[in-house]
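Last lecture ended with a question: if I hand you only a sequence, what can you say about the shape of the protein? Today we answer it with a concrete record. The protein is Altronate dehydratase. Below, first the input exactly as provided, then the predicted structure, then a couple of comments.
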Amino acid sequence: MVARAVRVSAGDNVATLLQDCAAGEPVEAGDASVVAREAVPRGHKIALGRIEAGQEVVKFGFPIGRAQRAIGEGEHVHSANLGTALAGTLDYAFRPSAPLAPPSTGATTFRGYVRPDGRVGTRNEIWVLPTVGCVARTAQRIAAAAAASHAGRIDGVHAFTHPHGCSQLGDDLGGTRAILTALADHPNAGGVLIVGLGCEENQLSGILAALPEARRPFVRTLVTQLAGDEQAEGERLVAELVGIASQARREEVGLDRLVLGVKCGGSDGLSGLTANPLVGRMSDRVAGAGGSVLLTEIPEVFGAEQILMNRAADEQVFARVVGLVNGFKRYFLDHGQPVSENPSPGNVAGGITTLEEKSLGAVQKGGQATVTDVIGYGGQVSRPGLTLLEAPGNDAVSSTALAAAGATAILFTTGRGTPLGFPVPTVKIASNSDLAARKPGWIDFDAGRALEDGLDATAEALLARIAAIASGEETAAERNDEREIAIWKRGVTL
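The predicted structure:
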């Protein structure tokens, strides 16, 4: 039997196994072939020739670390013999790359809700947002009762709870307020009820003051310390919002009205070969149509950041990308942590060895789109093209930041699987067909089919699925009622 492997670039000195390989088994990777000297699991790397101690190990055409000792041809390349070369902050030079022509095939429209300010939602829901964790359960009870009362009139009523909003100071409190304000202004919410306690640091008035004037008719507020029966009052306010939101109807719009958030979580060695490149093609398709794409998880671009920097629209955007990346590295260093403290145990088990390798796979989600903007945590997208968003790699925190920034759908690639869902439709894309077959209750699309059908055909199928979901088809997470938010806590707690 011959095991199949993929050599991504002609200059790579490793290949990635597409199936488990036993010791002594021949391995074919395109025009390269070796005999495995030991067992190598699917998604892991095998040396295509001898690699000397200290020599760069190359995958995706870029270094993913250095050999910690001499590695023989056919040997398993992983944590025992490969280490990161990442250190601290760096000086960067702007070397702009030529923009590629956007693809023009596949779905070009979806049916969305056109809001008065011109933005387009993929859902028409009522969101209940607590200002503080003290009223989280109150918000959930109001949402549950309202959802039952108004079923079928709108796409749903959902509470998004969190434990923050009090005992916070400065920028830490500001981050909580910014995320909640941005969610209150989201086009997927036809109406929003903001539930406060009354005595918290995160005063309801601060959120209202930051909302655009045009959004305020679609927002109601409830201060529970001042209400006689907060449950009844909350349900009454949601009923008002349902009356407004239920008048909206889906309309045919172009892909230029879509805002995609792109995310990976529980990645494996195949994520950078199947799911992430496919999502990159979706990014190119939407950005090429004039739409917007949001890429975050900034610590998971370390080692691949120059690729994004070279795609900056101009030197000003380049400088902001440099500031974002080095600022995040400094955040790690100031807390006494190395910038390379990644991948996770699940990533390692799936075949990813260093942060450079993980990052080179992760940045593919941005495709070849021009980087047109850089925004801070809690900021909102305002330009077409690819926007880099400040947020960590944590799945819940970064996906919440994507939704708050205006993503109306999130493409979430995974090699290990996760049930998590977020305020906007979260499309789970499996990097391998085994995961898709084992966890159909979690997975919306099998990117593993690209290994047989090719990236082009699989990309067209994924684009069609995204258009259907943007037009109202439920994701697995929505069917499972998996909808969460998580806020980045960065400061002291009083």
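Comments.
1. The chain has three domains: 3-83, 125-245, 255-479.
2. The CA atoms of residues 99 and 396 lie 32 Å apart.
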